[in-house]
Each structure stands twice: as C-alpha cells, then as structure tokens.
Amino acid sequence: MSDQQRPGDRADAFVFTPRKNGQSQSVSDELATWMSTGWADTELRDLDPIEQAPHTARRRAVLSAAFPGERLVVPAGQLVTRSNDTEYPFRAATDYVYLSGDTADGGCLVLTPDADGGHEALLYLKPRSDRENGEFWLGQYGELWTGRRNSLQEASVLFGVPTADVRTLPEDLRAGTATLRVVRGHDEEVDALVDEVRGDTGTEARAKSARLDEELRVELDDHRLVKDEWEVAQLQRAVDATVRGFNDVVAALPQAQDTSERFVEGTFFLRARVEGNDVGYGTIAASGANATTLHWTRNDGPVREGDLLLLDAGVETTTLYTADVTRTMPVSGTFTELQRKVYDLVYAAQEAGIAAVAPGRSFGDFHKASQRVLAEGLVEWGLLEGPVERVLELGLQRRYTLHGTGHMLGLDVHDCAAARQEAHLYGELEPGMVLTVEPGLYFQPDDLTVPEELRGTGARIEDDVLVTGEGRTVMSAGLPRSSAEVEAWLAERLPHP
Ligand code: GLY
Ligand code: MN
Ligand code: MN
C-alpha cells in the first residue's frame, strides 16, 4: 500500500477490507500468524496467450492512431451489490474486453502516448492476494473466497500486454500530463479519478471533458462495426449453441405446460450453462398475449395448448459474443388459421428484409423492405387504411410493428449503438458487419382497433445475418423459419405421447 494512498482509492477497496460479515473481528493473533505461513508458491503457471491477442493488439493500434498524444482510459467495471454481501454476476465492459481480451472485474486498460507518436498499453489488474497480511482469507476480495486470480506476470503472458497493480493506477494517472479520455460509465472510481486529474471546475471545462469522453466512445463503437474473422467465428459459436438451446426447448414444451414460461427460460439457460456459456440478455419466453410485450422477461405466465410461444434468446460465449434469435411456435405443434396468417406475413417481411442485406446497401434498406411488406399486409387485411405509401410515410403501421427491424450484433446484443450515424444508421453495409433481421407483429389484448380474434397475438422471427462480399449469410439458418418448416420441426422434436 503506497504512502500516497487517499481515502476512496482502490487500494482501500480490495486490500484487507474485512469481509462484510465481520469474521475478521474474531481472529486470534495465533490463527492470523499461522494462516500467513505454510503455503506453497503458486505465483506462476505456464500459460499460453489467448488466441485473440493479435486481434486485440491490432485494435489498440487502430485506437492509438485515432488519438495521438492523448491518454486513453478503458475500465472493466466493478462488481455490483445484489443484496447485503452478495453481488450480481459480473460482465466486463465491452470496450475493455474488445481491447484487452480480459473478462475479469476491477481492471483498467490505459494507453499512454509514447515518444514515437504511438501509445504504450498497460493493463492495470487486481494482483494475487497477499497472504502475509491476511488479505487472502480476511479481505473482501480475498482469493480464498473468490478464487485464484492470474498473477500480474501470468496476465501479461495471457493478454500480451504489460501489466501493473491496479492500486498504482491513481498515482500513475495523477502523474501524467497528457489529455485524458475515459470510457465513462463503467467504473465510478475511475471516472472520479479522471475528473480529479483533469481538475475541471467550471461548467465549460466539464462540458468539454464530456465531449472528449463521448468522442472516445463513438470511435470505439465505429471500430466495432466491422467484425474481424475471429469475432465472426465467436458469433457463429454463439449462434450454433443458441440453435441447440431452441431445439431443447421444443423437446421440453409439454413440460412447460405443467409449470410456466420459466420452464422454457430454464431449459434454454441449461443448454447455455452445460456447454460452459451464459446468455447475452434476459431471455424473453412469452406465451399467448405476453408475446405482445416486447421485453417480457418476467416469464411467469402459463404456456397453454393453443398459444403461440415467442422465444427470444441468445447464448453468450465465454469470450462475451452473443447471439440474438427469436422463434415463434405454436405450443400444440400446429398453427391455427389465424396464427398462420399473422406468422406468414411476418415471415414474408423477414424474407424481404434479409434479401435487402448486402454490401453497399444502406443500413436502413432492410428495415424499409420489411416494413413495406407488413404495411401492405395490414392494409390488405383492412387494419390500416391505404394507400400503403401514406401508411409508410406517416409510420402508421408502427402501432402493430412497434420496433425497428434489426440492429448490429456483437459483444453487445444491441451493438455499436453509439457509432456515428453516417457510419451506422445512415451508412452502408460492409462485409463483416453482423446484424439481426427481426420483424414482428403485435396485437395488444386491449387494442380496440383490431378484430377481437387477433387481440393478444404476437409473432416475431429474428435471425442473425453476416454481410459477406457477395451478399449475406444467415448465421442462424440451422433453425426453421417458414410456418411449414416450424411445424415440421415441432412434429419431429415434440415428444409424442
Ligand atoms: N433480444 C432483444 C432484441 O431482439 O433486440
Ligand atoms: Mn432478440
Ligand atoms: Mn434483436
């Protein structure tokens, strides 16, 4: 612990902070002394670098070139309390993972300008727990409780970046003179530290700093728009695992009818976990009228024969790339005439959307193509008054289509949301971009503008699509899409009585 330590420094935060349950109060000197000795040296394991190390190095070089002479601070984020002394499962900040490959909590990547006009990267990390001062078994983040961390030397080999003890981050940042930018919003302590070092007092200075930080965020989201080969392979792994999860859910549908939508959610999650993965967002398992609630994650409703089940779920790999897939299926195995009519219109809209995904097409095209098909159908059914051009111009179809037709996909499920509009929303698709195409129709149960028999019906079909040099690849093509294919899938996999 350095002499320069100040209240609030992270040196306080994880070195010998007694566990919150107060166990440290009852430790005898004899036990404390005994616990500090008799341990083998386990500081260094023989580790190989992570396979994405060349990619993270290239990404850091691109970032370096964008901000010559400036110091860039990219934190991983901290654990967040769930209740009392338990924490939410940790998920590292996307830009930190993208630039370092590390997925642990509490770290911070800093790119410092060097004499050659580039930057030196230094990865500040929590070191191993100190056994001599008792931190390893009495401290809040002691390894005896939370598990062995990489030693700084090991981490340096793993990530291909020099490492430092994160307790030295405050004094290192305070000692620098270069303009600072931070990826804000992930680690309050780091944000406060950067603010302190900048010494912004006035409103104008603070506004300027906020702009600097926002520019860094935008730049990083721009970089992440086009995926490299390694990232595409990770996304394909996530999608393939997701396909297996959907197949599991179909086989378990009859049991879900005995409990609730949570059986569906749990079945999908089981597949994610047994393969060593996680989910990239809260699974939406929405049966019947719940399918008309876009972010239905309570998943506590019944699954009934005769309902449509909308399942929107995605496996996230250990490298934190996520799939995002939706299928809508009749619980009984067969669509009713009305359900098929709704589903087939959504399917036609998705077909039109997928066909509009190609290099050089504008990002908005697939959305427009899908919305046109939906608007045409809604006018034909008499739900909207034509002509279709007027409906589209005024956006009237959105009462029933509700959301945009897709988004970028990657480390974040809604990836690259901060990217420059001219590169993203008003930009052109490029090979290596991955996006979802996910039109839907939602007739709310209390919507008096639709015929009674349609109320409470919702359907969405969502696939993950890679833009290629020639056109597109539907990465989630392992799952059926048309109503006939969905019924055949259910007939094959639903257990027969
Ligand atoms: N799962 C959220 C979405 O489809 O955008
Ligand atoms: Mn989704
Ligand atoms: Mn989506």
Automatic annotation (TrEMBL):
<keyword id="KW-0031">Aminopeptidase</keyword>
<dbReference type="InterPro" id="IPR029149">
    <property type="entry name" value="Creatin/AminoP/Spt16_N"/>
</dbReference>
<dbReference type="InterPro" id="IPR007865">
    <property type="entry name" value="Aminopep_P_N"/>
</dbReference>
<dbReference type="InterPro" id="IPR052433">
    <property type="entry name" value="X-Pro_dipept-like"/>
</dbReference>
<dbReference type="GO" id="GO:0030145">
    <property type="term" value="F:manganese ion binding"/>
</dbReference>
<keyword id="KW-0479">Metal-binding</keyword>
<dbReference type="GO" id="GO:0006508">
    <property type="term" value="P:proteolysis"/>
</dbReference>
<feature type="domain" description="Aminopeptidase P N-terminal">
    <location>
        <begin position="50"/>
        <end position="191"/>
    </location>
</feature>
<keyword id="KW-0378">Hydrolase</keyword>
<keyword id="KW-0464">Manganese</keyword>
<feature type="compositionally biased region" description="Basic and acidic residues">
    <location>
        <begin position="1"/>
        <end position="12"/>
    </location>
</feature>
<protein>
    <recommendedName>
        <fullName>Xaa-Pro aminopeptidase</fullName>
        <ecNumber>3.4.11.9</ecNumber>
    </recommendedName>
</protein>
<keyword id="KW-0645">Protease</keyword>
<dbReference type="InterPro" id="IPR036005">
    <property type="entry name" value="Creatinase/aminopeptidase-like"/>
</dbReference>
<dbReference type="Pfam" id="PF00557">
    <property type="entry name" value="Peptidase_M24"/>
</dbReference>
<dbReference type="GO" id="GO:0005829">
    <property type="term" value="C:cytosol"/>
</dbReference>
<dbReference type="InterPro" id="IPR000994">
    <property type="entry name" value="Pept_M24"/>
</dbReference>
<dbReference type="InterPro" id="IPR001131">
    <property type="entry name" value="Peptidase_M24B_aminopep-P_CS"/>
</dbReference>
<feature type="region of interest" description="Disordered">
    <location>
        <begin position="1"/>
        <end position="28"/>
    </location>
</feature>
<dbReference type="GO" id="GO:0070006">
    <property type="term" value="F:metalloaminopeptidase activity"/>
</dbReference>
<comment type="similarity">
    <text>Belongs to the peptidase M24B family.</text>
</comment>
<dbReference type="Pfam" id="PF05195">
    <property type="entry name" value="AMP_N"/>
</dbReference>
